[in-house]
Amino acid sequence: MAKLLLYLTLATSLIPLFSVAFSPENPTDRRVLVLVDDFAIKSSHSLYFGSLTSRGFQLEFKLADDPNIGLQRYGQYLYDALVLFCPSVERFGGSIDVASIVDFVDSGHDLIVAADSNASDLIREVATECGVDFDEDPAAMVIDHINYAVSNFDGDHTLIASDDFIKADVILGSKKIEAPVLFQGIGHSLNPANSLVLKVLSASSSAYSANPKSKLSNPPSLTGSAISLVSVVQARNNARILITGSLSMFSNRHEKSGNEQFLTEISKWVFHERGHLKAVNVRHHKVGESDEPAIYRINDDLEYSVEIYEWSGTSWEPYVSDDVQVQFYMMSPYVLKTLSTDQKGHYSAEFKVPDVYGVFQFKVEYQRLGYTSLSLSKQIPVRPYRHNEYERFLPAAYPYYGSAFSMMAGFFIFTIVHLYSK
Amino acid sequence: MYQRERERERERDYREEMARSTGKDAQALFHSLRSAYAATPTTLKIIDLYMGFAVFTALIQVVYMAIVGSFPFNSFLSGVLSCVGTAILAVCLRIQVNKDNKEFKDLPPERAFADFVLCNLVLHLVIMNFLG
């Protein structure tokens, strides 16, 4: 009995070693919790879920008010990403609430939130925590009388088509999305002061957000391309959030549109299959030597190198770019140099230590649209000259040296002449 | 009217004569100095030559500093003071060695020369130290 218990404890303690999910070596999410309003979504959105499972994600479907759901147990997170396909949920079940979702994102995990025309206040609150504001009118939907999708059950032009994508290959893939994306739901706006939020799909300039069933009494507050249909947020801890106002965009209904390609590509980005960088092997040394000194002297020549890799979904590929810069920083950058690459992920730069002594840092701050932000910093002290490292004889003082020695020679010659002349 | 013209003429003549006489006086003074100097003994003339060399070197250094700036100021001071110290010691030697000098009548010239050499040694020691 005791032996059985021993083996059991041994076996369970080894389980964390076998999990492959979401480690720094393998940043793609693996375990995804999908919260739905009812399980009919599993079949009506089967194409989207199928594309996820075919890429290796383990989806777990739960009802949003299931009393057994929880994001973490005993301090460890059970899932790497959360998908909220429950626009009408009033209260989450179990231990999930807005605060726990915010903590989940704060710990670096990803989130997809899909609202719809019947979005509850809870979902709107989650979206506000993430940085976007849905239209306050609960009955409003995005209407576009010019770019609407021609289909059978039309009439109020709420099924709109939009192809105003963000221009970022890292988010939407390198292949151009030919067909427009069909969208039916609520729109949201972004605070222009928020620098972390990006509009991936905006409505065309003829769209507006209003209640389709009633007449407009005053002009709509959200109009034109200020309406964002799909937004992403990349937090400072590199957690990625996708927020959209249409759950039906993910469904199987829209066959010939660009929805499938658009959603596949953007899910790849949200789940860290693309655009995830890591910087390793930061090294610096004096030019000509190979080991890393503990202190530099002013006016030394040094070389700094770093290796940057990008996660391709399955492996780390070298990241090639020509705008990575290193700063030699003490309260302000004394040296700012662009690193040159050898196209295999190795970046290096050579520069001269400035004429100021103190404690400096090698700083690499790399923030590009759609990529994880790199923030490297390595401290290094810089000392002034030792007293015997100055020049021994100053060229500017050669006349004075010459005069002193000529005086000595003159004195010597004068004594000879004075003594031996009659 | 004629009186004033004559007065002015007399003033002009007077000034010309003064100028001429000052010029003649200066020339006469210069000549007398040169002939008096030619009468000094050779020893003293050698000391004067040595002193002139020292002062000339000092002037060159001052002009150089005025152009280039006083960056290694200690070197500048050392160079200038070596020239100035040499000149001063040469002057002292000249005073003590001059036979016409009543004050140092009883001082043997060898003693003066020995003092001169020792002081120069000290001077050059200090200069080498301060030169940097």
Can you walk me through this structure?
- The complex is a heterodimer of chains A (about 425) and B (about 130).
- In chain A, about 20% of the residues lie in helices and about 30% in strands.
- Chain A is an alpha+beta fold.
- Chain A folds into 3 domains: about 30-270, Class I glutamine amidotransferase (GATase) domain (Rossmann fold, 3-Layer(aba) Sandwich), CATH 3.40.50.880; about 275-380, Immunoglobulin-like; about 395-420.
- An 8-stranded mixed beta sheet of chain A has the order 2-1-5-6-16-15-13-10, with helices on both faces. In chain A, strands 17, 19, 20, 23 and 24 form a 5-stranded antiparallel beta sheet that branches. A 5-stranded mixed beta sheet of chain A has the order 18-26-25-21-22, with no helix packed on it.
- The radius of gyration of chain A is 32 Å and the shape is elongated.
- In chain B, helix 2 runs antiparallel to helix 3 (about 75-95) and helix 3 (about 75-95) runs antiparallel to helix 4.
- With about 130 residues, chain B is mostly helical.
- Chain B is flat.
- Chain B has 4 helices and no strands.
- The chains are: A alpha+beta (about 425), B mainly alpha (about 130).
- The interface of A and B includes residues 408 and 414 of A.
Distance between the termini of chain A: 126 Å
Q: If helices are DSSP runs of H or I spanning 4 or more residues, what is the number of helices of chain A?
A: 8
Percent range for β-strand residues of chain B: under 5%
Number of strands of chain B: 0
The CATH homology group name of the largest domain in chain A:
Class I glutamine amidotransferase (GATase) domain
Mean pLDDT of chain B: 91
Helicity of chain A, in percent? 10-25%
The CATH architecture of the largest domain in chain A can be named as 3-Layer(aba) Sandwich
Shape of chain B: flat
- Uncertain segments of chain A: 15-21
Note the gap between the termini of chain B. 78 Å
